[in-house]
Amino acid sequence: MLELQHIHKMYNPGTINEICLFDDFNLTIEDGQFVSVVGSNGSGKTSMLNIICGSIPVDGGKIMVNGVDITKKKDFIRHQSIGRVFQDPSKGTCPSMTILENLAIADNKGKTYGLGRGTNHARINAYRELLASVGLGLEDKMHTKVGALSGGQRQTLALLMATMKPIEFLILDEHTAALDPKTAEIVMQLTGKIVKEKKVTTIMVTHNLRYAVEYGDRLLMMHQGHAIIDKAGAEKKAMQVDDILGTFNEISIECGN
Ligand SMILES: Nc1ncnc2c1ncn2[C@@H]1O[C@H](COP(=O)(O)OP(=O)(O)OP(=O)(O)O)[C@@H](O)[C@H]1O
């Protein structure tokens, strides 16, 4: 179970640009839950992910995993149990290395030895099978440099790499936003399949309201550092894109937009 308890986060404290983003923000995510997170620009979605991953510190409150306080744990330690995919396909993969080398790096996550251990015959066959399961023909490009792949192929690889080793949390930060609709659909279907198979606790930030409705068993809508919609189970299943749009419109009117 992941808990954000009484989180307080300010940016640029003591300056003219001071922003208090989170003031007593609380969120509990059960094991295996797939949470879709939507919200307007600047509502705090990425900051929330960064706080969970330890990419930014908090000014107050605790981050707990299975009852253990990880607030002070460094990001590289937390990443042993976290897979994260970013909006930019160039993050999370190494462009100057081949697909095979990238997969070997992901396979050896947390270990200190080189790539050799990841590239024996058995591993290569396993990587080929993994790539073939996606259906994009990546298994025939194992010796191609990742920088030469399309954005969609690269994001697919990033997703496979992030979930290759057992992880507790999969963090998806607008991971389909830079993809064309058809490729985004392929990456989302793969996401759904991986989450289901691995039963990994997942938090997916997206501006695609259809994906937020179709995927996941819980939906959060963020606004100014608060979760203003939080629906799970049957309530989440019943949600339609129009319901979220309606709340977006109400907020816009309140904010004078
Ligand atoms: N490193 C930072 N320094 C200062 N302010 C920041 C920083 N990161 C985020 N903010 C501010 O915090 C607020 C929330 O930003 P955040 O990126 O978390 O929002 P978001 O919901 O992910 O937005 P978007 O949908 O545009 O990605 C914004 O007002 C933003 O300007």
TrEMBL record:
GO MF, any single term: ATP hydrolysis activity
Principal localisation: membrane
InterPro entries: AAA+_ATPase, ABC_transporter-like_ATP-bd, ABC_transporter_ATP-bind, P-loop_NTPase
One family name in Pfam for this protein: ABC_tran
SUPFAM superfamilies with a match to the protein in the record: P-loop containing nucleoside triphosphate hydrolases
Membrane topology category: Peripheral membrane protein
Name of the protein in question: ABC-type uncharacterized transport system, ATPase component
